Amino acid sequence: MAQAHEIDYRIVGEEMQYVEIELDPNETAVAEAGSFMLMDDGIQMQTIFGDGSANAPTGVLGKLFSAGKRLLTGESLFMTAYTNIGHGKKRVSFAAPYAGKIIALDLLRLGGPVVCQKDAFLCAAKGVSVGIALQRKLGTGLFGGEGFIMQKLEGDGMAFVHAGGHVFERELQPGELVKIDTGCVVAYTHTVDFDIQFVGGIKNTIFGGEGLFFATLRGPGKVWIQTLPVSRLASRILSYGTTNRKEEGSLLGGIGNLLDGDGFR
């Protein structure tokens, strides 16, 4: 028998998506602080420690420890629970924090926990546990792009994660190996073996511009891959903000800046 609440949903939008969750009476969804967008009248909000799952620790110390683990994954101590206390179906929506895609994960269908980026979690049905996954291999923790600690989503309900750019799913057969940029790994099922491999070659290392390490993922299992890690996007924005702008029309140069107003700032 399923432990998590059974929720219906739809994902709306293209580049800036949101997920709309439909709640029957007494059903609850939990979400990351700051992701709320809108809800119908008759839904009650409640701030809770941790994720509100059935296997959450009891007692003050247990709850503090459970919620404290969330700090290690870059999340806040608190989550917000949204419960339909009215009659009939009610809807609540949660928005993505930046341009990208929202991925719906049916943990029951996937057959076990899913490991994902530290800040990927958006919302879930009440009963889904949002914990931590420790990387046991030294190299994976040091050079894997996410450090030693990642998020682990487990249970038998629906969970929703978000990642930058376009996100696609890759099904790996037993023994099949794929090499991915360390920042592009969004999530993978618990059956996938995740490791790190040195790129190799002096020219590749110095002039390749792709970093020193690959993430290697070996099947069986599913992997979700993003085209634009938020760290890559942030570094590009920072580079434009701290250096002189690259001119689109280089023949105009400073005259172009003057005409479009930059010369008067």
Could you spell the SSE succession in H and E letters? EEEEEHEEEHEEEHEEEEEEHEEHH
Main sheet attributes: strand count, strand direction, barrel closure: 6 strands, antiparallel
* Tally of helical runs: 6
Q: Characterize the overall form.
A: globular
What this model shows, in words?
This protein is α+β, with helices and mostly antiparallel strands and 265 residues long. The chain has one domain: Mitochondrial biogenesis AIM24 (Double-stranded beta-helix, 4-Layer Sandwich). The protein is built from six helices and 19 strands. It has helices spanning 60-72, 107-110, 138-143, 202-207, 230-242, 254-259, and strands at residues 8-12, 18-23, 28-32, 36-39, 43-49, 78-84, 90-95, 100-106, 114-116, 121-125, 129-134, 149-154, 158-164, 167-172, 177-181, 185-189, 193-198, 213-218, 221-226. A six-stranded antiparallel β-sheet has the order 5-6-3-10-13-8. Strand 1 and strand 2 form a beta hairpin. It starts with 7 loop residues before the first strand and ends in a 6-residue tail after the last helix. Pfam families: AIM24 (PF01987). InterPro entries: AIM24, AIM24_sf, Trp_RNA-bd_attenuator-like_dom.
Give a nutshell description of this structure.
This protein has six helices and 19 strands.
